[in-house]
Amino acid sequence: MARIVTVIGTRPEIIKMAPVVKALDRLPGREHVLVHSGQHYDLMMDRIFFQEMGLRAPDHQFELKDQPPHLQVATTMRQIASVAQDADLVVVHGDTNTTVAGALLANKLGRPLAHVEAGIRSFDRSMPEEINRIVADQLSNLLFAPTETSRGNLRKENLTQGIQVVGNSVIDALIENTRIARKRSTLLRRLGLKKRGYLLLTFHRAENVDDPERLSRALDAFEGASKEAGLPIIFPVHPRTAKMLKAHGLERRAAAIQTLRRMEPTGYLDLLALEESAALVMTDSGGLQEESCFFRVPCVTLRENTERPETLSLGANVLAGTDPSRVLEAVRRQMDVPRDWPNPFGDGTTGLRIAGVVDGFLR
Ligand code: UD1
Ligand code: UDP
After folding, report:
1. 291 touches ligand 2 (CB under 6 Å)
2. Is 47's C-beta closer than 6 angstroms to any atom of ligand 1?
3. Fewer CB atoms inside 10 A, N or C side of the chain?
C-alpha cells in the first residue's frame, strides 16, 4: 500500500494542513502517516488546534523544545528519518524549519516530495522563511501553488513540472471554522468588545522582535495606531515576542501603553472571532494577511515586504514596516478603505484537490 508521510510542527502548519490531512486520511488504499516535529509545543500553540479542528493525533510526535534553528532542522531530520525512509511521498507545508527539514530529508532519502503553499515569495532572502520556501520548492516533485502569481514565481525559478494551482487551504479551514467560531467563541463578550470597536494585532516575525530597537519602535507605532483609530488594540502575544519583550527589558514600556491589551495566544476559534469583528488587523503574520482578506477586514502589514502580494493589489492590505509615522498613515488609510474586494485564495476545496493530485501521483 502506498505510504504518504506528512510532516507538520508549527501553529500555522497545523491549522492550514488540517483540511489537507483530513482529505489525505480519506484516500482509499493509501496509508497516511502524520508526523509532528515538536517545533511548537505549548498547549496554546499546538494541541488546542488539534482539539478545535477535530484533527487526529499525530502518529509520531517528536520533541524539539528550545533548539536554535540549525538544530531544529538537524534534529528533525534525524528524528523523522526512520518514518520517512520508505515513504512513497513526503508532504510538507509552508516555510518553517520543520518544512525545510522534511524537504531535505525526503531529498536525501531519495523519496518524492510535495510542497503545499509552493511558489510564494517575499524576494527577501534575509528572512529564514524565504530560504526555506525556495529549498522546499526546488526539491519538490509536486508543487501546490495557491495562486497564479505563485505559479509565475516558480516559473521564474525554472520550475515548470508538477505545479498545480489549487488555492490555499487557509480558506478550507476558514470556511469550516468561521461558522463554528460564531457559535462557540465567547471571547468578545468576555473582553467586553464590540464589532469594529478594536484593532487586532499579532507580531512575532524574527526580524521584527529579535532586535530591541525595532521592537521598541514598534511599541511606539502601536501606541500611535491606537490613538489614530481611537480604539484599543487586542494583542495575543506569540511566545517568541513574549520572550523578546522580557529579554530586551521592554515589558514595562508595553504595560505603560494602556490601550494595548496583551493576552496569551488564543485558540483558532477565538482568533477567528477576533479577526472577523476587528476594525482593522495589524500583523506581520502570513496567515493573518490571508484571513483578514477573506473576512474583508482591512490589514496593515508591519513588514517591508510580503509574499502575499495578491492582498496588496486588491487594496485589502498595505505594507507599513514598523516606523511609527508610516504605520499611523497606513492605519488612517485602511480604516476608510471600501471593504469590497474578492477573495483571491480559492474556494475552500484545496484539501480535496491536493488529495486528488496525490492519489493520481501514487498510481
Ligand atoms: C516559526 C516560523 C515562522 C512562523 C512561526 C509561526 C521558522 C524559521 N519560523 O517562528 O515562519 O511564522 O513559527 O508561529 O520556522 N516557543 C515557545 N512555545 C511554543 C513555540 C515556540 O515558547 O510553543 C518559543 C521557542 O522556545 C523559541 C521561540 O518561541 O524560543 C521561537 O520559536 P520558533 O519555533 O523557533 O520560531 P517562531 O518564531 O515560532
Ligand atoms: N492564530 C491563532 N491564535 C493566535 C494567533 C494566531 O489561532 O493567538 C492563528 C491565525 O488564525 C492563523 C495562524 O495562527 O491561522 C497564523 O499563525 P502565525 O501567525 O503564528 O504564523 P504565520 O502565518 O506568520 O506563518
Report:
1. yes
2. no
3. C
Positive or negative torsion for Cα 38, 39, 41, 45: negative
Residues noted as catalytic: 204
- CA of 289 relative to ligand 2 center, distance in Å: 10
Contacts of 247 (CB under 8 A, 6+ apart): none
Q: Are residues 182 and 118 in the same domain?
A: no
The answer to whether residues 42 and 152 belong to one domain is: yes
Are 280 and 164 in a shared domain?
Answer: no
Q: What is the pLDDT along the chain (363 residues), one digit of tens a residue?
A: 999 999 999 999 999 999 999 999 999 999 999 999 999 999 999 999 999 999 999 999 999 998 999 999 999 999 999 999 999 999 999 999 999 999 999 999 999 999 999 999 999 999 999 999 999 999 999 999 999 999 999 999 999 999 999 999 999 999 999 999 999 999 999 999 999 999 999 999 999 999 999 999 999 999 999 999 999 999 999 999 999 999 999 999 999 999 999 999 999 999 999 999 999 999 999 999 999 999 999 999 999 999 999 999 999 999 999 999 999 999 999 999 999 999 999 999 999 999 999 999 999
Predicted TM-score of the model (pTM): 0.99
Q: Identify the nearest ligand to the CA of 307 by its number.
A: 2
Measured over the CA atoms of residue 353, residue 358, residue 359 and residue 363, the dihedral's sign is positive
- Residue 4 and residue 24 in contact, taking contact as beta carbons nearer than 8 Å: yes
